[in-house]
Amino acid sequence: MTQSWYLGRTIVTVILLFCLVEPTDAEAQALRFQPQAARAAGQGNAFSAQADDASAINYNPAGLAQVEGIQTVFGSTAVGGSVEYQSPTGFDSRGDFNGSVNWPPPSHFYLSANLSPIRSPMFSSVTVGIGLTSPFGSNASYPVDGPFNTAVTSAALPLIDIKPTIAYRISKNLSVGVGADIYTFASFLGEGHAEQTRISAGALGIPPGASIEFNGTGTGAGAKASLLYTPVRNGAGRPIVSLGLVYRSQAVVPLNGSLLVNGAKIADASTDLVLPQIFTGAVAVWPVCTSEREWKVELDVEYVGWSSNNNLDVRLSNGATIPQPQEWKDVPVIALGTEYRWLSPQWLPYWEMAVRSGYTYTGDPVPDRTFNPATISLPAHTLSLGTGFLCKGAGRFLGVIPCSGESALWPKGIGIDLAYQEWFYEPRTVTGNVNPTVDGTYHAFVHLGTFSLRTLF
Q1: What is the tens place of the pLDDT at every residue in 274-297?
Q2: Topology of domain 3-456, per CATH?
Q3: Of 64, 179, 309, 430, whose CB is crowded by the most CB atoms within 10 A?
């Protein structure tokens, strides 16, 4: 079989992986869910200046230009945690992310292919790829009789992101990448639409105590562009210093659906979900880089333009509007990560092994006035740990599966990466909210475990 046949067969698996992609509200940064592959997650998501596997599709598309052959990365994140609330009068309540462990788990899939086998000067420096992730989403659940039930009782945003990407190597040290982010919903994923429920406070003629649900679905798109520059290499051509720049555009996802009261539709409803533009700058340094081992340290700094999310007002077909002010602000995200790799060590022949760690500071974009527990947002400090194993040549994955074979259908390498993140959230006391029942003190507890499987062809 040819590599093109295998590439086509692998693309089909994207469809199967849709059923695993479910976003969660585990990030401090409102709707954004950053861990999208275990290698990066183990380094506190500091990966944009390294970007040397197929997950570069998410972290820095230009990095695809250094990814050889055909590669895949796919995996999932197990998310656990809760949100605890105490009212100014001392009343306690608790919510979670649709269960003690979110299910289905948020997942990721990447496929990249270098086009040099086409043997044409036009394609020799081109790498293409496609990804499927859940970078924005929410999944929160609170008691129906809770203290802020007029603000939210449950919320779900099963938004997925399809990422067609292309990278071009301009020179040995410089590459660029472009791609699209196509945000949409799938009918077989959760309810297949955005949804938020709450209890009526008696506004707009809806009886107090009635159950209100807004749901909507739609598709929006954004673009991204990036570069990867490696000004310093050693004698073997390995990177010593690498710089990454990434720009992701704002995207608007129109949500069109229904307003339900006690389960009965009373009007068509629509709103616009605005996702932020993001600027990322990253630098990676390899203090050790030999044929036997590598040690990388990386700093990524992001500027996330949440200020474009001004409101989420719901427009009804009867001419009424349900105001939902947002008034979010722009915030920084700072990530520092490191990876130490042993390349075919004597004590583990035919394998590469890596250990990773990282720290991330995540800013809080949501002001007290418009805070909503549906998208819990608190300043956070994240500690990350990770490890990875890549089997090549005569090695055997799990002691049984050959890591390399003669057939074009069999990979040249099989790897597994694991990461654990613990989010240390700062407690937050909300005052002066547009819905006074939301005022109070919030504590969040979240831990994540990410698994990725890599294959190299």
Answers
A1: 999 999 999 999 999 998 999 999
A2: Porin (2.40.160)
A3: 64
CA proximity to 26, closest of 74, 83, 92: 83
Specify whether the CB–CB gap between 90 and 440 falls below 8 A: no
Give the Å distances, CA to CA, from 46 to 37, 42, 232, 291, 302: 11, 9, 20, 23, 10
The closest alpha carbon to 181, from 131, 116, 254, belongs to 131
Could you tell me if 52 and 456 are in contact, meaning their C-beta atoms sit under 8 angstroms apart? no
Tokens of residue 72, six digits:
């895949």
Nearest to 111 by CA among 248, 4, 226, 230: 4
pLDDT, one tens digit per residue, over 385-418 is 999 999 988 878 777 888 887 777 788 889 999 9
**How many Cβ atoms from other residues are within 10 Å of residue 119's Cβ?**
8
Torsional class of 102: left (φ above 0), alpha (ψ -120 to 50), beta (otherwise): beta
One-letter amino acid identity for 203? A
Q: To the nearest 10°, report the CA torsion of 389, 395, 397, 401.
A: 160
